[in-house]
Amino acid sequence: MQDIVVFDLVGPMAHFRKFYTNSSSLSYAFPPRTALMGIVAAILGWERDSYYDLLSPAKARLAAAIKAPVRKTIQTVNYIRTKNINEVNGSGGGTQIPLEILLPAQEFTSLRYRVYFYHADKEITGKLAANLEEGKSRYPLYLGLSEFIAKPILVDLVSEKSIQEVQPGREVELVTVCNAQAIERLNFNGEGGDLQYIREKAPQSFGPGRELRPPVSIIYEKNQKKLRGIFKVPVYSLRYRAGEEEVVSFLEV
């Protein structure tokens, strides 16, 4: 595998709406692949709805890790009907919607998500890394809702020589959330303390006209412990210039 861009997204609050909720807006604890696509496109300056093919699972690979503990709270939000410009004053009526919001837990003051990005076109990977290094993003970044602004921080552009492909059948410890289809067997004797594995159905990609492709099941450990097990597909060990190493699994299987 060629270069992989690794960067962190930091922000005070987040909401990644579960696609199957209606009257109450519940949130994933992590950014699903479709949210990651939008974040990458925003940094690169690609307009809305223009990037679904460029960042499809056939061309781009994405992974995410939860790097700071998350807690959830429900707040009721007032929405107003704005079918046309004349209703911006609230004359169209309104409604109240329960909204699940993600906040940092324990001693942390910010949420932090790590994103891993690979593209078959090395030029796109390089441009993303260059924009991140210069602190440039063509469009503002946010964690799910435009009110929840995020700051990107480049961790590393990991070159091919610092990427090791780990073949299926070996036990490893993942730092990322994982597509359930990639899992052969989990080892529940991982890090100390109780393990809380969560399974979520999450969107994966869009087709033409923003048509939602079939969702996939994602598994992650609720308390940011590593996912230890044997996997059906190759996973990747990344060695950063700072010396840190991580094993990641991309969301595409």
Describe the model.
The chain is mainly beta. The chain has helices spanning 33-44, 122-133; strands spanning 4-11, 16-17, 27-28, 60-66, 70-80, 94-104, 111-119, 151-158, 163-166, 171-174, 178-179, 183-186, 197-202, 206-207, 211-212, 216-221, 227-231, 235-239, 245-248. The longest helix has 12 residues, at 33-44. The protein is globular. The two termini are 15 Å apart. The mean pLDDT is 94.
Set down the secondary structure blueprint.
Blueprint: E1 4-11, E2 16-17, E3 27-28, H1 33-44, E4 60-66, E5 70-80, E6 94-104, E7 111-119, H2 122-133, E8 151-158, E9 163-166, E10 171-174, E11 178-179, E12 183-186, E13 197-202, E14 206-207, E15 211-212, E16 216-221, E17 227-231, E18 235-239, E19 245-248
Antiparallel strand pairs: 1-7, 1-8, 2-3, 4-7, 5-6, 9-18, 10-17, 11-16, 12-17, 13-16, 14-15, 18-19
Question: How would you sum up this structure in a few lines?
Answer:
The protein is mostly beta strands and 253 residues long.
Low-confidence segments, ≥5 residues, pLDDT <50? none
Q: Give, in order, the helices and strands.
A: EEEHEEEEHEEEEEEEEEEEE
* Biggest sheet, spatial arrangement of strands: 4-7-1-8
Query: What form results from the Cα inertia axes?
Result: globular
Oligomer: single chain
Rg: 19 Å
Strand proportion, as a percent range, falls in 35-45%
- Calculate the mean pLDDT score and round it: 94
Main pleated sheet: 4 strands, antiparallel
Distance between the termini: 15 Å
Q: Please state the structural category.
A: mainly beta
Percent of residues in helical segments?
Answer: under 10%
Number of helices: 2
The count of strands amounts to: 19
